[in-house]
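Dear Dr. H.,

I hope your travels went smoothly. While you were away I took the liberty of generating a structure for the chain from your last submission, since the lab meeting agenda had it listed for discussion. I wanted you to have the full record in hand beforehand rather than looking at slides cold. The sequence, exactly as received, is reproduced here:
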Amino acid sequence: MTIASACMRHFRTNHLKEQHLALVPERGYDKVDGNQSLLALRFFKWYSEKYGVTVQNVNSDGGEKRIGKYQLDGWVLEKNYGIEVNGCVWHGCPKCFQMIMR
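The corresponding predicted structure, in token form, is as follows:
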């Protein structure tokens, strides 16, 4: 469980009153294949323009690049490398959040 999911559970359980509406995130709560933040999409647009490269992402014809069972936020075709935007934060990386996970 990540800190974000624990905080959301605490908020729903202890603070969100019945019959009240919550503010819905920009792309909703549902986990949808190909759901990507506007931050990531804007970053990839900027990156591709600045460096003159193509960044394959959720909006590309082939969608997000897959490596095994993983999907990359962005794949730089010309350089053959991937980019994750806020990946450690979003997925609760145990390396980066070692102290928190204990």
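Two observations you may find useful: The first helix runs from residue 3 to 14. The helical segments are 3-14, 38-51, 87-91, 98-101.

With kind regards,
E. W.
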